[in-house]
Amino acid sequence: MTIPAVPIPILSFIVFTPLIGALVLLLIPRQRKEAARVFAATVSSFTLLLALWAFLAYDRAAGGYQFVERISWLPQLGIHYYVGVDGVSLPLVLLSALVLFTGVLVSWNIEDRPHELFAFMLLLASGIMGVFVARNLVLLFFFYEIAIFPKYFLIAIWGSTRKEYAAMKLVLYTLVGSIIALVGALALYFVSPSVPSIWMCFGSWPPGGPSPGRWRCLDRRCASIISGSFRFSWASR
What we know:
Number of helices: 8
Order of helices and strands: HHEEHHHHHH
Distance between the termini: 40 Å
Low-confidence stretches: 199-217
Radius of gyration: 19 Å
Mean pLDDT: 82
């Protein structure tokens, strides 16, 4: 079966569909709980279909990063909207979309503030999938922090035993992790401000090795230290 080429910026659609859906969901009148559930299910199923389309359309023979989108954001600071997926990140995007859809169905009968519940779930999914598609440190950190906000409320409001304690503990852990990640991101920028992507977060060089002009002052030891700050931050989540 031949999967047709993707004619749209599908990664942006996948990431921002839940985000837009969360905002629209809050506009639905509070008394219309069933409408909120149906809308959340529609948004999550559409997101899942987009992720499945991207997964099936991915050229496994070619490999590498595909569906790449790059838009100048703050060119004076070297910041761009830069996303793409490879054979590792794309299955994670699909898995996240599947978990979102399943989570909406599992939470269908919750009567306590379903509008906010599903809005936070959609926002969380948007942040998580944004992390997987990000090819830029600023974008990675941006989506990384977006995913923190809804987790606190999901635990504090709809959690079970000692939910307030668990939510506050999450905030403390994520705050420390965010500070460490921010220090690592700033260190990477000041050590090698021309680095355009997140190669160094994983301690690996781009194909063909580093270019002295483009990757100046970033040796493997430095890359390992900066990489360690991100790994510690992610482990704290």
